[in-house]
Specification:
about 600 residues, alpha/beta, 19 helices, about 35% helix, globular, Eubact_RibD, multifunctional enzyme, hydrolase activity, hydrolyzing N-glycosyl compounds, RibDG_C, signal
Amino acid sequence: MVLALSFAAFSPVASLCTRTNSCSLRSTPHSQEASLLRQAAEVADLSAGLTAPHPNFGCVIARGTDVVGHGFLYAQGTKCAELQAVEIARELSRGATAYLNLEPGDCYGDLTPVSSLVQAGISRVVVGIRHPLHHLRGKAIQALRSQGVQVDVVGEDLLGKAFEHQLQEALKSCLVVNAPLLYWAAYCVPFSVLKFAMTLDGKIAASSGHASWVSSKVSRHRVFELRGRSDAIIVGGNTVRRDDPQLTARHGGGHVPARIVLSRTLDFPEERKLWNVFDAYTIVATQRGACKDMQKKLASKGVEVVEFDFLNPKDVMEYCYDRGYLSLLWECGGSLSAPAIKSGVIHKLFAFVAPKIIGGENAPSPVGELGNVEMTQAIDLIDVSYEQIGPDILVSGYIKPIPDLSPVIPSVDETSALDPTISPYETNIIFFYKTWDEYGVFSNFSPHPVQMPDENGDYIMWPSVEHYYQAHKFIPADAPLAGEFVQQIKIAKSPEEAARLGRKLQRQHPEMVREDWDTVKIDVMYSALKCKFSTYSNLKSLLCSTAGCILVEASPHDLFWGGGREGEGLNYLGRLLMKLRSEIMENTSTPV
């Protein structure tokens, strides 16, 4: 199925529940259903650019055609969309219908999204698409139905010609808003967008290499928005040498994407803007053994160097997948974009076409040699859209269609029914990393507040283990500035933001970090984990259920808390959880 859609401008969601008259749709019941589901998809997209890409959940609660509650997942480790929506709707939730663009996940480990809807008295749930991840697929739908809630899944329960057009468009909205997650689940690589700006005669620069600027300021602002929607921005070595880009988002949001440079030779000047990692992280991917001297210089500046046996786009994408990246933006030249397209890792294209001509036989074009010799071999884009941006025209389309996984990925129960000998999960080693993983609640980013004593013995509630951990880099706060840092971290909107802020402040103000931090940070993490698992009984039960299994925090880049890319990491988070599991089971008098 070929599916793509560009969202129209959407007014702030807060107005949904205050402008009741505008929420009343004077149309058929079929179009009303579709409109409310599209609103859920639009709500789900509201954190774009503010936080790192994550599964986008939106929930709209309606009584008839009046919206009475809404919510969206701001970032991993924050309050789920369903709970936010019922808190707004309050008593109006009883007997109402909830519209969800995506089947609920379970980053709490106790099906909080489901229980929120059930306890609020929601009588019916309309789901756009089932969750594409194996361990979550169908789980929430089954749980809701077991509690007597009517659940209708678009394309499964809502069928018929009368529904076909409106609901098909609503379904597209649900797929587009989670395109990164769907590609990630289907192809085991991040969703990759190739972006370039070119003149009418197809040039991205003059023959001299000068390229400032091909497109207008308005178009460049749109590029900042695209960057804000990405985990990382990818360029080649030529771009770094020739343009010396900064590649920051500058979009006004809080999320700062990483910068990834692909270079086999590392033939770089010692000073480039990308080597400044105070505001944005930089990764350089290169060939194994390449220019060890430059590798050392980059590492001394805080740049992460990752070696590959043979540097190519496909292997780099597999690495980014293992790193947990959902969405990437390629801003490279033709010599890198061509092999990326040929290797099949580019999924969508954004071309900003400026109304100007530069000419030049040797002027570079956006895509290098693909090996095509006939026009019949040209790659046709899918679901192409056109938008005027200032004087420029933005042409966008998909090279690979958004995967509709609904008829493809069976649930665990379905798999077992087909072949009882298949074990869907590895039983000896359990990996966890992102909060949406099967065992994601083990993460220090999970949305579980912990109440911990301060240096005076007074108990303080911290939004997550990560908030507590990052703040304690500056505790005891002997200096007023350190105290300010602690408060800034404590009120961070998500664990992700707390981590980003804590690391940034640590780099910028090393003198404010407690002198014994390297010695005590394991104890700090363990005390917070111990509080978390003793507070939430469902987490304790889940941890004990892994008895006999090795727990590995699967971060490929954190070699202290995680297991590393090839198992070279120390995996201290996994070790602490196994230690805690052993203590809990030793102190439990009855079987768990």
